Amino acid sequence: MQAPETLFEFPCEFPIKAVGEAREGLTAAVIETVLMHAPDFDASTIEIRSSSGGKYVSLTCTINATSKTQLDDLYRALTAHPMVKVVL
Question: Which side of the chain, N or C, has fewer Cβ within a 10 Å radius?
Answer without folding.
Answer: N
